Amino acid sequence: MLTALGVVRLTRQYRTGPDGGRFPADDDLGVHGYLTAGAQQLAAFAGARDSFARAQHTLRALCGWNPDDEVIRTLTHATARRAAATRDTRADDDRFTRAEDPIEVQVDAGKVNTPAGWRDVKVAVFARRPVGDPRGLSDWDQQELPGPVVRTVVAAVEEAELFRARVRAEADRLNVTGAADVTVLGDGAEWIWNLGAEVLPQGAGVLDAFHALEHVSAAVKAVWGDGTAVTASRVASGRAALLGEGKRGIEAWIGDRCRELPPGAAVDPLVDLAAYLAPHPTHLNYAARLGQGRSIGSGCGVPLWILARYWFS
User: Fold this and answer.
1) What's the whole-model pTM score?
2) How far is CA 208 from CA 20, 116, 191, in A?
3) From CA 284, how far away is CA 294, in angstroms rounded?
């Protein structure tokens, strides 16, 4: 038998009856098949982190195990089915309600390969996260927030309207729907903010700062080129404007840069940046949140590739 500690030889009584044979002690030992529960957990974890073939090599190198990639695939999918089947019986709603820390809801999507081809898997992470140490603009990127004290995840490969109903059901289950101290974090995708407005009407939205800063950097590089001192200076000033003054600061910065275009350069990248930020005038309050020790971007979510493998491979 394969356990989390390696192969062991287990001797126990085997009984036969009208319905066939079995090992009665297996029920007490938690044994179902060749792999114990601990070994199954490790195999599924490896299968979720990488391709099943690579998971096979990883387990062989680190543990000396020999299950092939098909066994790992079967175990990983079985783990996914058990996780889905037991969602309605989970008791984490009481823990979530009793926790007093601020509520964060992070929403995202990514591509996963399903039997029907590449599709979007949508994910919403509900978390209670304690506040951290205040940060300023000089050390904003050194912020290390405490981990969530409780977290739940919903995910599905489905259209935005159906996923919105799924998230609403989870918000109702956790008594979050009408809560005032809720932060919704996401990138610039319109469906995320439509979901937030409908499901969590009293929530404060935060456009993921890292996505926003990537757009600032991309716009500067498209106009002034990559790897130059001028580009580095423009990116730094854009970052300071966005994080320090939010909507007012970044709009003024874009206006100033439009008046400094190099000869022959197109203004389109800066216009595109303004269009990306335009729907989020109230979602750019980064300086205040940093000063409160609150999040300004992603950080407590379950990695999307793990969800993709567990639930949708």
Assistant:
1) 0.77
2) 58, 31, 15
3) 13
The full DSSP string for 153-182 is: EEEESS-HHHHHHHHHHHHHHTT-TT-SSE
What per-residue confidence (pLDDT) applies to 298? Answer: 73
C-beta pairs of 36-40 under 8 Å, 24+ apart in sequence: 36/1, 36/2, 36/3, 36/4, 38/3, 38/4, 38/5, 39/2, 39/3, 39/4, 39/65, 40/75, 40/78, 40/79
At residue 5, the pLDDT reads 64
Residue recorded with tokens 């951290």: 132
Tokens of 306: 């793990």
With CA atoms as reference, report the closest residue to 60 among 13, 112, 2.
2
Rounded to the nearest 10 degrees, what angle do helices 209-224 and 268-277 cross at?
170
pLDDT for 19-76, tens place per residue? Answer: 777 777 777 766 666 777 778 888 888 887 777 888 888 888 888 887 888 888 888 8
N- to C-terminal Cα separation, the chain: 27
CA neighbor of 83 nearest in space, from 310, 313, 301: 310
Distances (CA, A) of 294 to 134, 188, 192, 263, 270: 8, 20, 20, 42, 29
Q: What is the largest CA-CA distance in the chain?
A: 89
Tokens of 42: 């490790």
Strands 20-22 and 15-17: antiparallel
Q: Which of 205, 224, 210 is nearest to 270 (CA)?
A: 224
Q: Can you say how many angstroms the Cα of residue 206 is from the centroid of all Cα atoms in its chain?
A: 15
Phi, psi of 11 (to 5 degrees): -110, 125
Q: For the chain, how many helices (H) and strands (E)?
A: 12, 9
